[in-house]
Design brief:
Layout (H helix, E strand, L loop, with lengths): L16 H15 L12 H12 L12 H12 L21 H25 L4 H12 L2 H7 L5 H22 L6 H20 L3 H20 L6 H33 L12 H5 L5 H5 L10 E7 L8 E8 L14 E6 L7 E5 L20 E6 L6 E7 L7 E5 L13 E5 L16 E5 L4 E5 L15 E7 L10 E8 L5 H8 L13 H14 L13 H5 L5 E5 L6 E4 L3 H26 L7 H22 L15 H21 L4 H30 L6 H6 L14
Helix pairs in contact: 1-4, 1-5, 2-3, 3-4, 4-5, 4-6, 4-7, 5-18, 6-19, 7-8, 7-9, 8-9, 8-10, 9-10, 9-17, 16-18, 17-18
Amino acid sequence: MLGFLKNPIVITVEINMNLVALTVMGLISRLWGLSYPRAVVFDEVYYGQFVSLYMKRIFFVDDSGPPFGHMLLALGGYLGGFDGNFLWNRIGAEYSMNVPVWSLRLLPALAGALCVPLAYQILVELQFSHCAALGAGLLILLENSLITQSRFMLLESILIFFILLAVLSYLKFYNLQRHSSFSGSWWFWLLLTGVACSCAVGVKYMGLFTYMLLLAIAGLHFWHMIGDQNLSNVSLMCHFLARGLALIIIPVAMYLSFFYVHLTLLYRSGPHDQIMTSAFQASLEGGLARITQGQPLEVAYGSQITLRNVLGKPMQCWLHSHMNTYPIRYENGRGSSHQQQVTCYPFKDVNNWWIVKDPGMQQLVVSNPPRPVRHGHIVQLVHGITTRYLNTHDVAAPLSPHSQEVSCYIDYNISMPAQNLWRVEILNRESDTDVWKTILSEVRFVHVNTSAVLKASGFIGASLPEWGYRQLEVVGEKLSKGYHQSMVWNVEEHRYGKSQEQKEREVELHSPTQMDISKNLSFMAKFTELQWKILTLKNEDTEHKYSSSALDWITMDTNIAYWLHPTSGAQIHLLGNVVTWASANIAALVYMCLSLWYLIRRRRKINDIPEDAWQLWVSAGGICVGGWAVNYLPFFLMEKTLFLYHYLPALTFQILLIPIILQHLGDHLCRSLLLKSMFSALIVAWFSSVYLVYCTFSPVTYGEPSLSVSELKDLRWKDSWNILIRKQ
């Protein structure tokens, strides 16, 4: 029974010392002196604001991308005990003692360090030699720009880590496909591919480029599987479903989960929530929720309401009127109706209140029980303070002469009768009998007499002159001109009117409502709105001192000064290793030229290299050249401010191509022993120059030691580089 104890229990472990050494060197190069400088470095001033908002649970919108990367940075702050109290307003500002600098920079540094062993493993999985793989790892290790970008609270190193992890996972999965389909390890690497792709997209939308590349490669591989007669239809269907689950369904689910966590964490109102709809704002703690809590849900005849324009551009505004009238004649000589002005006002004000009136009745109070307003009902909108009716007629608007003027009607006893009937159209209705709801319903007001739609034209920046107090213009727009969000309104504040007398009603307009009805949005409704805002909200792109074009990146004709010591010459720059960048460009050019040559020769039935070498060459190009192309070429189509760091994901793929080209040249073009020896000597000399350049630029990569004026001038290898030199 105890016979198994006669032999010792032996555990054999294989350790790849190349991988261990690269990992250790990567960690040292990225983590050494991580807290230096203890000051805000370049875009830390941008990402740090979001970290503080996470710490305080305050909602924000960042139009640069999804929230996963921001949450990872915030995780570093959370682990370091950061309370969010720091004013991120200036690059170079010294961090206060409550800011855990090392912790905030830790995750980007770890991601950057792990890119080194990932590069090694990718070349191994591409079936290249361990020597070539070691070269790839060392090139990533000694790339100054990747070191700089990974040592601060920035997202590019995290993005590159997940991109490389996705590529490595897919290659491992593909290599297992040949002999162990549907095994545990096969499922692990397939699922990890989808998870890594989702994380890459969740950090920055740039990750979508690599995700699309891997989907295309997976599709091509599956297409080849379809032609395999050894696979049954059932087996093919299982392979298809497994890939669909891992590469599409799981990434989508994870992407949604990033937003779910984001919205769960950020439940408090803040400075960014004003660009969201009233319903979204009301779901946050504080802010609008404090005003709207307990409002009646259903708008009824006699309801007192404020109407917010849904578009919210160039700023949020509410339908507004005041005692002043349109001037008899405008500056250009055109005449007006001289009726009471109606505008869109960007601040909360008692003059934003309107009363929903039944045209067939005189009362301005809600009956008991209330009579709700439904889609298609005809209403009159009475201005709460002046008691004049919202009106439009065939008179040109002050700033938009092709649209109708909107006013509150004043009876001057002339041949201009009131035209104050409006049809309520609920755009997001589920049926034609839907009730008009506070906050939730998006409505359009169609003028009964002229079919014009109530519209805030201020979205093009049309603010009225001094006589209109620079408020935004409101017009009646013909339905034939099409739909626009500026035609859509929602009830934001709402109470049931009880006072028929005007004096009592004015007091009532300042009083809070007492009814309690919840208006919580579902997660999918909040996700859809937030996702749309991220994709469509565009900050004004301004020219930055260190912005550049995509053409500048290939030859590194630009740099970015990240930090300058306030007294000494110590400084940090985003500058790459010149030898590596030039070699990467040459490698890409050699690959394309050789591929064209091989294709032409193969067309002539001449195979210069064995078939397995050709397949290896094509697969390596698909990953490395394809990865470079999809992460670089789209920037030529983007209308946004670009910086050198946008090129780093593409550069990483290009660097992986260098040892691939070197091994291919050594294996297939250097045929004699002498040529191989000379080629090896050239590689050693070339790699020594890579290391020398790395050491030369290390002072501006790590920020120390401080350099003299002459030493800084010596680092200016290109006239286009902006090395900061203090005036003596």
